[in-house]
Amino acid sequence: MAQQKYFNNPELWQDPKARPYAFIKDVTKTFNGRIAVNNVSLSIYRGELFSLLGRSGCGKTTLLRMLAGFERPTSGKIFIDGIDMTDTPAYKRPVSMVFQSYALFPHMTVEQNVAFGLIQEGLPKEEIRDRVGTYLELVQMSGYERRKPDQLSGGEMQRVALARSLVKQPKLVLLDEPLAALDKKLRERTQLELVNIQEKIGATFIMVSHDQEEAMTVSSRIGLMNEGRILQVGSPTEIYEYPNSKYVANFIGSVNLFDGIIIEERADHVVVKSTLMEKNLYVSHSASAPVGAQISVAIRPEKIILTSTQPEGEYNWTNGIVKEIVYLGDVSIYHVQLRSGMTVLTTVTNSVRAAERPIQWDDEVFLYWKPETGIVLSI
Predict the structure, then answer these.
(1) What is the pLDDT of residue 194?
(2) How confident is the model at residue 186, as a pLDDT?
C-alpha cells in the first residue's frame, strides 16, 4: 500500500501547477424545480481529507452523491483524476462510499462483508484473503473475521464498513456522516484513527459532516456550504481565524460580533465606532474598507481577556456585569452583559477550582483584546 502522506503537505492546493484530483465545475442540481446544489465549483487534491460542512439541507450530501454517481448533475461537469465522469455510472467510477448507516449485510460475517466487492470482481481467492486480512488489520479488526454485524458495536461496524470500502483500493473514498451514530468519546477516538488510516494509504477522502468539531479535527481543508453554495474553502485554521462572512464566523465556533461604522481607515488598521460599546474598536492587519462602511468586527471568546481592573488605552475595551458562568471542566465561558444590552462571551481557563475563582456572578468586570484579534466582516 502507498505510504505517501499527502495530508501533511499543506502546500499542495497552493501550488498553481498542481492538478485537482477531483474537480467539480459549475455543478447545479435541481429536484422538481428546487435547487439543491447551486453552481458549485471545487478543486480537491490528491491525498486530501476534505470535508463538506454545513447544516442539514445545505446540499453537501447531494454533492457527495453526484461525485459517487448516484445522482447526475442538472448542469456542470465532474472530473476524477482528469477524466470526465459526469455521465459515468456509479459502478464504473474509481470511487467507494461509506454510508452513515454502514449498510453491512446482516447474514454475512465480517470477513464476507469486506470480501464481497472483491468476489464480485472475480479476484483469485488467495488475493482476496490476503487483501481482506490486510485491511482488517489496518482498521484494527483482526480477530473479528467470523463475527456477524449484530455481534459488533457501532464503532466496530463503522470500521468494517470502512475496510469494505478501502479493500477495493479506490482512488476516491466518499464518507457520508460516517461517525454520526457513535457516542462522543468513541467518535473522538475514531476521528483520529480515520486520519491515521487516510495517511497510511495515501487515498483521497471526501467527507460530509454537520459537526464542525469533527471537520476541524480531521480535515486538511473544509468547504463550508449553505443553501447549495460553497461559502468558503480553507484549512481549519483559515476558516476559524479568518472567516469571510458573518455566517461562516457564526457557524464555526462561538463569536462576538460588534456592528459598527468605520471612522478611520489606514493601510494597516481601521477604527470602528460601535453603538454596542463606548470605546472604539481598533483592528490591525484588516481588510481594506472605506470610511463610513457598515461592518461587523468579529472577535472569538478565547481572544478576550477578562479582568476586574480597568485597562489602559482608548481602544478595544469595555465593561459589564457577569450574568452567567458556564463551567465546562477545562474552561468556563463567562457571559458578560454590557450597558448596551449586548452579551459578550469570553473563555477563561480553569487554572483554579471553581470556588476559588476571583470573578463570580454579578461582578462588574472589564473586557479587552489585542488589535490583531479582530476581523472586519462586511457581509
Answers:
(1) 86
(2) 78
